[in-house]
Amino acid sequence: METRIRYMARSPILQTEKAFSTDFPVDHVDDARSTNLVADDRPVTVHAIQDPNQWELDTHGFCILRAEVHLDLDRIDTHRREVENAFWYDIEAILHEKFPRYSRIEAYDLTVRRRDLDFPQRVRQYDPSHEQPAEIAHSDTSQRGGFLVLQHCFPGQDDYWKHKDFDIINVWRPLRRPTDDWPLALCDYTTIDQENDLLLNDAIRRDTISENSLMHFNAAHKWYYLKDQGINDLLVFRNSDSGGKRARGFHAAVWNPKATGPPRESVEVRLVAFY
């Protein structure tokens, strides 16, 4: 697939300011900025995955699992908590079976994305019912961001996790088929220059501040996607780990110039997995 990836430019301001971004308007505040980042869109070939079994979480930052997971689409908007808990339970069980090294797995977030017809020309402000595809190349949390997530999502449990080794994991799948509109692309971790390609970013949200990792362009990067991904094809990738040493799954939603299906609908679960 010939498309583009939204990287972040190596702007001079990043030599004196830490990168930051918000997901809410700040126009009402004098001299306020919603971000100090500058987009750097690059033409990229995103390769279709030929053999799902060749990708390993600890080498490439992501893997592909095939499993039947129940998600009640008729009730996800009206009975969100009940549907969310059932889906979390299924995903946690699948990960425990695939990765027995984890002693405890806890889901903490479920995000539904439904692409608006005028995305990406127009990106609406935050809607609590659903989000838009995320076209910036990123991982959801940095090493520090993983600890901030635990503080926010599991308050009062610091004594349990502060000395433990853990991963922050994402499991992504489409809600419906066909799924060729704005698919999720993943970067092979072995092609990333850890010293020069990555950028720490303060992610400022309405109710919390976290830290994620963004990417600068490097022609060595190799990007892949799961063509014709079904609802039982689970993309599993690591966002961060407590030690900052393991492979991570940098990812981005990408425009498919040959898409024939309806606007993309997807669901993702974020989890902490303790060793």
Q: Report the average pLDDT across residues.
A: 93
- How do the helices and strands follow one another from N- to C-terminus? EEEHEHEEHHEEEEEEEE
> How much strand?
25-35%
Helix content: 10-25%
- How many helices does DSSP assign? 4
> Which structural class do you get from the secondary structure elements?
alpha+beta
Oligomer: single chain
Shape: globular
Strands, helices and their partners?
Layout: E1 2-8, E2 19-22, E3 39-48, H1 57-60, E4 62-66, H2 80-98, E5 104-114, E6 138-139, H3 143-153, H4 158-161, E7 166-174, E8 184-187, E9 198-204, E10 209-215, E11 223-225, E12 233-241, E13 251-253, E14 265-274
Parallel strand pairs: 2-9, 3-11
Antiparallel strand pairs: 1-3, 4-12, 5-14, 6-10, 7-12, 7-14, 8-11, 8-13, 9-10
Account of the protein in words:
By secondary structure, the chain is α+β, with helices and mostly antiparallel strands. It has one domain. Helices cover 14% and strands 33% of the residues. The protein contains 4 helices and 14 strands. It has helices at residues 57-60, 80-98, 143-153, 158-161, and strands at residues 2-8, 19-22, 39-48, 62-66, 104-114, 138-139, 166-174, 184-187, 198-204, 209-215, 223-225, 233-241, 251-253, 265-274. It has a 5-stranded mixed sheet, with no helix packed on it. Strands 4-12-7-14-5 form a 5-stranded antiparallel sheet, sandwiched between helices. A hairpin with a 4-residue loop joins strand 9 and strand 10. The longest helix has 19 residues, at 80-98. The radius of gyration is 18 Å and the shape is globular.
